[in-house]
Design a protein that fits this description.
Length: 83
């Protein structure tokens, strides 16, 4: 499947796979964006606490780092698409 760009129309398959109307999708999107934003802040705070304790090499810290990068990438995608 090709890359979808901002403004690209949804295909019939995509329409069938999402039973929500536009208002419901917008509400769901906003919930998801808020969730990602909160998770990024929470993850960063947890990493800061571990760093203050000198635990940067623990498995937990490294997992949080991976999570943080994922959340940052998602927020960058939102910005890239003007959301």
């Amino acid at each position: 499947m090709g890359i979808a760009y901002p403004g690209a129309s949804r295909t019939p398959v995509q329409e069938r796979s999402c039973p929500m109307n536009d208002a419901e999708r917008l509400t769901a999107y906003r919930k998801m964006q808020d969730f990602v934003d909160r998770r990024l802040a929470d993850t960063t705070a947890r990493m800061d606490r571990l760093r203050a304790e000198g635990k940067e090499k623990t498995a937990t810290y490294r997992q949080l780092l991976g999570d943080k990068l994922q959340y940052q990438n998602m927020m960058e995608l939102y910005k890239m698409f003007g959301l």
